[in-house]
Amino acid sequence: MTTIADQLHHVQAQIAAAAAQAGRPPAAVRLLAVSKTFPAAAVREAALAGQRDFGENYLQEGVEKIAALRAMTDIAPLIPPLTWHCIGPIQSNKTRLVAEHFDWAHTIDRLKIAQRLSDQRPAHLPPLQVCLQVNVDGGATKAGCTPAEAAELAQAIARLPRLQLRGVMSIPDPQPDAAAMLAVHRQVVAVFDALRRLPGLDGLDTVSLGMTADMDSAIAAGSTLVRVGSGIFGARDYSGRA
Ligand SMILES: *Cc1c(COP(=O)(O)O)cnc(C)c1O
């Protein structure tokens, strides 16, 4: 039987190979394990195998899992604190859950949401680490700001006291072939490179790009953080979800 630990090691090897192929050190690419729809026991298994960063899309589910993992005091000596990333859409009436429970939020595409997260971030926690979500390939209905909007939005977010802007995130649509996929990934990295040249934004260090199906291409383009769900935990079952 293939275990979560086996799959995790397989994904780590795939990241290292893709990085080597691109002439980048394997440590340049961070692995975010996307545990949405999977139980706390699956996160525990991955954490015991050494995984530290976990991503959740559905806020209530994520908050419950964060609490469940904290309550597993039997494994506390084995598992240093986990880092929790919100990678799902954030509505304005849900910002408090993100501000109070997560370490990162990847899907910021409006100043109003960023402002609320900054206002609601508890004083005893470090600043919330955030990425600006950019939409390089979709129409107006797709989440994410346009590349043209990115500079002004990034500079405004960077001024908020309780957020730390780390870079960009994107969820490109699948493309018909590898060359087209790579071209889209490169557009995301180009937005990041342009932001980093702006005053005050030279410390940006994160391109959150690539999932199970497109991680090799994303790493070739310059992704620094891949978000991998099914490649680690297996196929998702959404049937229990309203
Ligand atoms: C679900 C999800 C992932 C992981 O997708 P897989 O194809 O299972 O690797 C990555 N990023 C986001 C934003 C997601 O919603």
From TrEMBL:
Q: Does the keyword Membrane apply?
A: no
Task: List the coiled-coil residues.
Answer: none
Alanine racemase N-terminal domain span = 8-236
Per the record, the domain of life is Bacteria
Residues modified as N6-(pyridoxal phosphate)lysine are: 36
The alphabetical list of record keywords is:
Pyridoxal phosphate
* Purpose of the protein: Pyridoxal 5'-phosphate (PLP)-binding protein, which is involved in PLP homeostasis.
Protein family:
Belongs to the pyridoxal phosphate-binding protein YggS/PROSC family.
User: Mind telling me what this protein is named?
Assistant: Pyridoxal phosphate homeostasis protein
